[in-house]
Amino acid sequence: MTKKLLVTGSSGLIGSEVCVYFAKELGLTVHGVDNNQRAIFFGPQGDTRWNQQRLSETLPGFVHHEVDIRDRAGVLELVKTIRPDVIVHTAAQPSHDRAAAIPFDDFDTNAVGTLNLLEAARQACPESPFVHMSTNKVYGDAPNSIALRELETRWDYADAAYEHGIPETFTIDQSKHSLFGASKVAADVMVQEYGRYFGMPTCCLRGGCLTGPNHSGVELHGFLSYLVKCNLEGREYRVFGYKGKQVRDNIHSLDVARFMAAFVAAPRQGEVYNLGGGKANSCSILEAFKITESLTGKAQTYTYVDENRIGDHICYYSDLRKMRAHFPSWDITQSLESTIGQIVEAWKKRA
């Protein structure tokens, strides 16, 4: 009998990539849960219906469920009906800027929605691996306390202890998170707790900048995708503080899906992984401009705002050593340059 995958946020960047990968590479029947809440949070430019349609047209047997994860009874009924063999939870209110304007929507989606899914899984299919897409924002602005050195185009860690990036042992406490970061902390800890307390196979993936060609990037969320879109359209990109030298590690959605598959094949209880591109796939905004300009032949139009976003990281890249130790067959396969190139081509097609 074909195994079943339930993906929340299935029309989003990571959710859609997971749907395609698990269907085509692993042969699972895919049930997608998405109510296009991204369009509510970000307006028309955040709309993901096009991605939903793409999945329906290209994945045989794909079933779409128009369910809001805040609907506790609806989620419970859905999970009990499907009894999925794997649950991948990527649905979220994803912007730390937006969260301050909609605190209840943010918390109900990120924290309560996750709890609804966990409890439904415990009741219906407690043995099924539960993969939660968390965020590096659970660390708040604590990474900014690490000694930094300023280079020509980026900031980098001056402390040798962080030569490989931020490890999973880094503190998540007593720092400024943004309300988004706080709601994701609640979800993250709850996913760990269902793993440790109830013995369920769960993991939290604390994502860096997750990106790829199927991202509906907007200013408040989707750094690389939005930057490329601005470049192609000659639109002004706003840089918020830190001289444009703030650093992020970028991981292609395909490599995210590949790691999830590795975890599902050999699950653990209540695990946490920092899932990003690592130092090799890190770049500052200034460096991202240069790579994009070299691919499009267009100069990046931007303005500088001398005020950083609240709780924003000056420099963040993930230490991937724990992931590689637990799952030695997994590694990054998509380089930063290749990823940006794919995003450029995708935006051209959608123009």
Characteristic terms for this protein:
351 residues; alpha/beta; Rossmann fold; seven-stranded parallel beta sheet; four-stranded mixed beta sheet
What report would you give on this structure?
This protein has a 7-stranded parallel β-sheet with strand order 3-2-1-4-5-8-12, sandwiched between helices. Strands 9, 11, 13 and 15 form a 4-stranded mixed β-sheet that branches. The N and C termini lie far apart (41 Å). It is built from 12 helices and 15 strands. It has a domain at 4-145 and 164-216 and 251-279 and 316-336: Rossmann fold (3-Layer(aba) Sandwich). Helix 10 (285-296) crosses helix 12 (336-350). A hairpin with a 4-residue loop joins strand 6 (148-150) and strand 7. It is globular and about 55 Å long. By secondary structure, the protein is an alpha/beta fold.
CATH topology of the domain at 4-145 and 164-216 and 251-279 and 316-336: Rossmann fold
Secondary structure class reads: alpha/beta
Mean pLDDT equals 95
Order of helices and strands: EHEHHEHEHHEEEHEEHEEHEEHEEHH
Q: What is the correct CATH architecture of the domain at 4-145 and 164-216 and 251-279 and 316-336?
A: 3-Layer(aba) Sandwich
- How many helical stretches? 12
CATH homologous superfamily (4th level) name of the domain at 4-145 and 164-216 and 251-279 and 316-336: NAD(P)-binding Rossmann-like Domain
Q: Give the distance, in angstroms, between the N- and C-terminal Cα atoms.
A: 41 Å
Task: Show the helix and strand layout.
Blueprint: E1 4-8, H1 13-24, E2 29-33, H2 37-42, H3 49-58, E3 63-65, H4 72-82, E4 86-89, H5 96-99, H6 103-124, E5 130-135, E6 148-150, E7 155-157, H7 178-198, E8 202-207, E9 209-211, H8 223-233, E10 237-240, E11 247-252, H9 253-265, E12 271-275, E13 282-284, H10 285-296, E14 302-305, E15 315-316, H11 321-326, H12 336-350
Parallel strand pairs: 1-2, 1-4, 2-3, 4-5, 5-8, 8-12, 9-11, 10-14, 11-15
Antiparallel strand pairs: 6-7, 11-13
Helix pairs in contact: 1-9, 4-6, 6-7, 8-10, 8-12, 10-12
